[in-house]
Specification:
179 residues, 2 domains, 5 helices, mainly alpha
């Protein structure tokens, strides 16, 4: 009877590990626990970046309720924003395809160059947005301010190895050594 209990306990422990891992990864994850990554590749995410930028811009535009006079300013901003989204992902994709080994200083120089390009692109987008913002009504400005107040902030519980909505756990203080 003892052997049978050991086998059942082992089976239950293995099941708990398996289902616990599946639960922690959540739906839509690949075998490595990466959400939205098909087969561990970033191909799907890169193709969707332009579409997601388009969706966000469309939603933002509808929230602003632009007038006909504001429309040309919006178009200038939206075109630069869409181009910026595609440009960054394209640069990352090209870097991923380049499989020749480079030294650490060369890689650092490449990263610095990409950051300079991203900064120039962001300055251009910001310039066109500032022109649009200046033409907005106070209500539209409040909408724009609200829209950008959470931009770039991680969603609570997203990533960092914990399920969505879970609060971060503070590390326990080390117990004093007993003599």
């Amino acid at each position: 009877m003892n052997r049978k209990n050991t086998i059942v306990a082992g089976f239950l422990a293995a099941s708990a590990v398996f289902f616990g891992t599946a639960y922690a990864q959540g739906p839509g994850c690949d075998h490595e626990g990466m959400r939205g990554m098909k087969g561990g590749s970033m191909q799907g995410g890169m193709k969707d970046m332009g579409a997601r930028a388009e969706q966000r811009l469309t939603k933002f535009k509808s929230e602003l309720k632009l007038t006909a006079e504001q429309e040309p300013l919006w178009q200038a901003f939206a075109e630069k924003k869409k181009a910026a989204a595609g440009k960054g992902m394209q640069a990352m994709h090209e870097r991923m395809k380049d499989d020749k080994p480079v030294s650490a200083p060369e890689r650092m120089a490449q990263m610095q160059g990409m950051m300079k390009e991203r900064l120039a692109t962001m300055e251009s987008v910001s310039e066109s947005f500032n022109r649009l913002y200046a033409a907005l009504t106070p209500e539209q400005k409040a909408t724009a301010d609200k829209h950008f107040s959470n931009a770039g902030k991680p969603k609570p519980g997203a990533g960092r190895g914990r399920p969505r909505g879970a609060k971060p756990v503070a590390p326990k203080a080390a117990e004093p050594a007993k003599n």
